[in-house]
Write a structure and sequence with these properties.
With about 170 residues, this protein is of the alpha+beta class. It contains four helices and ten strands; from the N terminus they run βββαββββαβββαα. The two termini are about 25 Å apart. Zinc ion (ZN) binds next to α4.
């Protein structure tokens, strides 16, 4: 992927293909940390914060394979997932009984190129021992959205260019 350039569908220029995308921490979390928003924020563990004890904001890795990349690279997107407290409570009750627990949540922000109207429901594993995993990785996307299909089947380098263009110019589709 090192020297891959593509012609941008939006501005017509050549850009460098990016296979690592990190979405910024949600405004809500920034506002609470900066004192602009009054809410209780508890850090549960690395990448997991609880807001007002009602839901958690979790940073997780969404990896999509690139089917025609000779280097076998993949698109790694760090996204922010909202997990309701009852879901965390359910997971907590399973601690000790199961090695890894499947937790469901929703991606909190739009992913340019993919449809804004879709609620991206995801699931990921939480291990009992936080030290065993450096990051939480999404292992499934629920539903039939284009993102869910691409997650399952992978994308081409051409499509990565389209996703990059949309992101670079912050276009919804
Ligand atoms: Zn461009």
């Amino acid at each position: 992927m090192t020297n891959n350039q593509y012609k941008c569908q939006v501005c017509g220029e050549m850009h460098q293909l990016q296979s690592l995308i990190q979405f910024p921490q949600p405004d809500l979390v920034n506002d609470i940390l900066a004192g602009r928003e009054k809410a209780q924020l508890d850090i549960l563990s690395k990448g997991i914060v609880m807001i007002n004890r009602t839901f958690a904001v979790v940073e997780s890795l969404l990896s999509v394979k690139i089917v025609d990349d000779p280097d076998d690279d993949q698109l790694d997107m760090y996204v922010w997932v909202k997990v309701e407290s009852k879901e965390l409570l359910r997971a907590k009750q399973l601690f000790g009984r199961e090695e890894a627990i499947v937790v469901f949540g929703t991606i909190m922000h739009p992913i340019p190129f993919y449809d804004h109207k879709d609620d991206f429901e995801v699931s990921f594993f939480i291990g009992q021992d936080d030290n065993t995993k450096d990051e939480l990785q999404i292992h499934s996307l629920i539903g039939e959205s284009q993102l869910a299909i691409d997650f399952k089947e992978g994308i081409t380098l051409d499509k990565l260019g389209l996703i990059n263009s949309a992101l670079l110019h912050l276009l919804p589709v």
